[in-house]
Amino acid sequence: MKKTIATLALTVIGFVSQAQTVEIKSNAFGMILGAYNVTAEFQLENNPSVTVLGSAWYNSEEFKDWMYVNRDGGLSAGVRQYFNRHEDQGVFIGAATRYISSTAGSSGYWDNMGNWVVTYGDINDDYASLGFTIGYKYIYNDKISVDAFIGGGRILWEARDNSYRGPAEFISGFNFGYRF
Asked: What percent of the chain has a predicted confidence (pLDDT) above 70?
């Protein structure tokens, strides 16, 4: 996980050197419930309608219990193309790749003889996906932003075989941001 975070940080630093505008955003409603996230979006200097994003998020134990989810947190990187040719606002489409850290509880397993073997503990249920998003971003006074998006992703890798998860995932978000 440390190598993944370091790689993402170096990638973000590389894009920052080419970035004209940096926007930091998060979901205040999610924070109230215990789902913490932060996203950095970088507008490219030579193509202002294209942005590069990096995100990280963490779900508290209370949030996971309340929402019945087992996602601990994750990392995401993506690219957005805005339909406005001169700036990064309005309708956009994007591509995103995500790594989700997830821990599932286990009470046992079926052995080769068909018997249930009781073993309590946690199972690593991490996965990675590649997908698309479509959304809208509004910018107020060249500083404050609000964006919302939805999309889907194809799960390309899973830490365990025989996962209950389907081959795809739903992607969505709602963020408030500030530009520097």
From this structure: 89
